[in-house]
Amino acid sequence: MTLVGAGPGDPDLLTVAAVKALAAAEVVLYDALVGDGILDLAHPKAERICVGKRSGRHSLPQGEINALIAFHARRGKRVVRLKGGDPMVFGRAGEEIEHLDSLGIPVRVVPGITAALGCAASTGLSLTKRGVSRAVTFVTAHGRDGERFEPDWARLADPQGTLAIYMGREQARAVGQGLTGAGLPADTPVLAVENGCRPDERRYWTTLGEMAEQGVAAGKGPTLLLVGEALRPRQIGTADAVDLRALGDFAQGFDHD
Ligand SMILES: C[S@@+](CC[C@H](N)C(=O)[O-])C[C@H]1O[C@@H](n2cnc3c(N)ncnc32)[C@H](O)[C@@H]1O
């Protein structure tokens, strides 16, 4: 049984190991978050089973997913459990691995690019920045089975850190209120990335103060909230404008004309 990270959506962002596992699979159990085109990489004869939320249908309960994986693995099939992003980040991989371990079914994990890193790459915004942000925190604003929960805002409100908030769209106002209430400035930049790394990626800029009042205007696609000074839009014409002549010989390496 191979637990495979499908990355944020673009098939080009799969690892070579993920592509090989898909090509060899006889059964693929996949989540709704898996991007278009990725399932096409599975063996043409592989049985494809959707276990995630799709077109209004609810996902299978975790217990049933565990049982289904075990059922196919015990039939001696080469099973791939395909999850969006990285299986080990808000992917409930732990529950599936524990269940299979308890049945003596060996599990191999193939990592994927998690949404935060995919969105950083597609937007060209570094999550850390020298002198500005020295930590990145992956956090969810979503309670167990959708229930409300109150994160420790004081711990998260680090002015020298970047927050990558998963499953945060519905709780965006509460996130803005919690973080400003814990002392982060209201003008702290927020970037909401919807459908990151997909052809329909959309970006919504706001600030913590605005988000506390209005939430974010993102649509229904998976949306990641990035919060922190490292996201502040670049001041074109200042630090970015380097006079190549001043760099002398070193600059010649950059001269493609
Ligand atoms: C259940 S979590 C799964 C996270 C996944 N395991 C990962 O590593 O990215 C689902 C949340 O991940 C974020 N997410 C996943 N894919 C995304 C994408 N392509 N663009 C933006 N956010 C995404 C959203 O916050 C979404 O609500």
TrEMBL record:
EC assignment: 2.1.1.107
Entry's Gene Ontology molecular function annotations: uroporphyrin-III C-methyltransferase activity
The keyword DNA damage appears for this protein: no
Residues in Tetrapyrrole methylase domain copies: 2-211
Gene name of the record: cobA
Keywords assigned: Methyltransferase, Porphyrin biosynthesis, S-adenosyl-L-methionine, Transferase
Protein's name in the database: uroporphyrinogen-III C-methyltransferase
Enzyme class: transferase
One GO-annotated biological process of the protein: methylation
PANTHER family: S-ADENOSYL-L-METHIONINE-DEPENDENT UROPORPHYRINOGEN III METHYLTRANSFERASE, CHLOROPLASTIC (PTHR45790:SF3), SIROHEME SYNTHASE-RELATED (PTHR45790)
Family designation: Belongs to the precorrin methyltransferase family.
Pathway note: Porphyrin-containing compound metabolism; siroheme biosynthesis; precorrin-2 from uroporphyrinogen III: step 1/1
